[in-house]
Each structure stands twice: as structure tokens, then as C-alpha cells.
Design brief:
Length: 63
């Protein structure tokens, strides 16, 4: 078979600043969903680092 439908697909990505005129409304909505998920992931990492930093500062303040 020339094309293998079971082949792994590239993960969805979005390039900031790319030309959006060629995307359908559904594709644009999918990108928004993708970006919202990435924003949530980034915010969770910020929270984790902030908690970790606060805990480290507390340890050093007690000495």
C-alpha cells in the first residue's frame, strides 16, 4: 500500500504569526483549543515553580 493510515501522525502544532487565511473555521477552533491547552500547561508549570521557590525560600529563612 502506498499510504499507510496507521502511521503515526505529527502532533498538532501552531506557529505564532502564521497566515490564518487558509484555515477553515473548524481548523481555527481546533488551534484555539490546542493553544488554550498549552496556556493551561504553562500556567500549571508557573504555579509549580512558584510553590517550589516559596518552599525553598522558607527553608532558607528558617536558618
Amino acid at each position: 500500500m502506498l499510504f499507510d493510515d496507521d502511521s503515526p501522525k505529527k502532533p498538532a502544532t501552531h506557529e505564532l504569526g502564521c497566515d490564518l487565511s487558509m484555515f477553515s473555521v473548524d481548523e481555527l477552533r481546533a488551534r484555539i483549543s490546542l493553544l488554550r491547552g498549552e496556556i493551561e500547561r504553562l500556567e500549571a508549570e508557573i504555579e509549580a515553580k512558584t510553590r517550589s521557590r516559596g518552599a525553598a525560600e522558607d527553608v532558607f529563612r528558617k536558618k
